[in-house]
Write a structure and sequence with these properties.
With 281 residues, the protein is an alpha+beta fold. The chain is built from 4 helices and 16 strands. The chain folds into 2 domains: 67 residues, no CATH class; 174 residues, endopeptidase fold (from Nostoc punctiforme), CATH 3.90.1720. It is 12% helix and 30% strand. It has a 6-stranded antiparallel β-sheet with strand order 11-16-12-13-14-15. Strands 1-2-3 form a 3-stranded antiparallel β-sheet, with no helix packed on it.
């Protein structure tokens, strides 16, 4: 079972619990999954042992632990919603525009990235590009879908295709040590910057300057974002069972490109739901 709310900082907070029942359907105990201890999200981190005990796979910065869950008759709640009244934030003079951006146009641009198809030459896939980390979905020369993930990049779809055609640039860079001039593509915040039709690239740390925090995840609408400053951002598309569907340029699961995918609430702990200041009503 999962409970999802926002904490006092406006970040998504998830309380995931496991319930143990006897053969007659009576509740025997409740255990809490240690999501707050996770360094990296694990999609299927629970398992039942031969003895009937439930174990959780917990990731640390330098190791992985297997923890046995402890069942109790009751658990103290860890979710306590704060006062998250809706407030707009000014742009700080960084972005000024005269017309709003429609949600339909946002989603159309997002789909354009995912549905893109481009032939990549051997130079595009394996040419010399010092410091580049080659996207893992790319093998040799061939036709590839979408737009490659490129750390620091914010190419439009047509721009990316144009850079690939002459065969002088490399497709994508998943190495986050630096921005390479020889690779092209788009990273997570660059993708959102393009979808929101901004005049310059924003980062996950500066996107809050041009958006406002939603009071609840229930308020999310197409074109809104789930943002974790300094980490990652996802463009919201729709709600799913215990999670959301969205568009993102991501290296998770070795996607290494713009994808439409599902994210469980338990993987979104610490993210903040936000809405672009200039979205059309």
């Amino acid at each position: 079972m999962e409970e999802v709310t926002l904490n006092d900082a406006g970040e998504i907070q998830v309380d995931q619990t496991v319930r143990q029942y006897d053969t007659a359907g009576g509740l025997q105990g409740i255990a809490r999954v240690p999501l707050a201890q996770q360094h990296t999200y694990v999609a299927h981190g629970l398992a039942v042992g031969p003895d009937g005990a439930v174990y959780a796979l917990v990731t640390r910065p330098d190791r992985v632990e297997v923890q046995r869950l402890r069942f109790e008759q009751t658990l103290e709640p860890i979710i306590a919603p704060g006062d998250l009244s809706r407030t707009n934030q000014d742009t700080g003079g960084m972005f000024i525009t005269q017309s709003c951006v429609s949600r339909d146009s946002m989603m159309s641009i997002a789909r354009e990235y995912v549905n893109n198809s481009k032939y990549l030459s051997q130079t595009n896939t394996d040419g010399s590009c010092s410091g580049r980390g080659k996207p893992r979905y790319i093998a040799g020369a061939g036709t590839y879908a979408s737009v490659a993930y490129d750390w620091g990049g914010w190419d439009t779809v047509s721009g990316y295709n144009g850079y690939m055609s002459p065969g002088t640039y490399q497709a994508g860079d998943i190495d986050t040590a630096g921005v390479e001039s020889c690779s092209r593509g788009v990273d997570c915040s660059g993708f959102v910057s393009r979808v929101w039709q901004l005049s310059s690239k924003y980062s996950t740390s500066t996107l809050p300057n041009i958006s406002w925090q939603l009071s609840s995840t229930n308020d999310l609408r197409r074109g809104d974002i789930l943002n974790k400053a300094g980490s990652h951002v996802i463009l919201f598309a729709d709600f799913g069972s215990n999670g959301v569907y969205g568009y993102e340029s991501t290296t998770s699961n070795a996607y290494d490109r713009v994808v439409y995918t599902y994210n469980a609430w338990s993987s979104l702990s610490g993210y903040v739901p936000r809405r672009y200041n200039n979205v059309c009503p």
